Amino acid sequence: MPHRSILIQAVIKALLSVIVLGVLIFLPAGTFRFPNGWLFLITLYALMTVTMIYLIKKDPELLRKRLQLKERQKQQKSLMKFTAVFFLLAYTLPGFDYRFGWSQVPLWLVILAVIVMILGYALFIEVMRENSYASRIIEIQEGQKLIDTGLYGIIRHPMYAAALLIYLASPFVLGSYYMIIPILLLPVILVIRIQNEEKLLLNELPGYEAYRKKVRYRLIPGIW
User: Region 36-51: what's the mean pLDDT?
Assistant: First the structure.
């Protein structure tokens, strides 16, 4: 697939995701005058754009892989349906929170959360720099090799660690303490996904058993 076509698809999907998030955020707020909502969307789209530019220049094939969203495993399909409901709940709460004035998140915490989001995307890009097999769906690709350097020498699933940083920062960027409640389900979702993924890696990726013994922690160093 030509690079231009991949980039167009990526931009369209990014725009659609931001539009959907915008509806989820601003509709419950009942107004477009929701500063934290705009801060979140602008920060998110800027970071997504930087990531797309990096991939189209350095690894367009990986960008193509990451545009594929359809899971092949039955358990993962069910998990993704549940995750979709989770996102709907999580990202509608900040709008209601703003409308009814439930939370008062201080500016310093909002700024700190934006920095954490940026750090999460920086880790995300570093993972993709190290691992050109980091597709969005769980699969073993043709010719896939085990990666055990860089961040993969610290934890086995740094991509999910980066995602965890981004999503845990979201409630504070959006100015909603109440959003933390559904977001706390995310680590549970990730644990289920990682456990399922590791079964596949153990069965189909050469060297993964030895790597698992060498790098003990899956997601958070010293914890799990």
Answer: 93
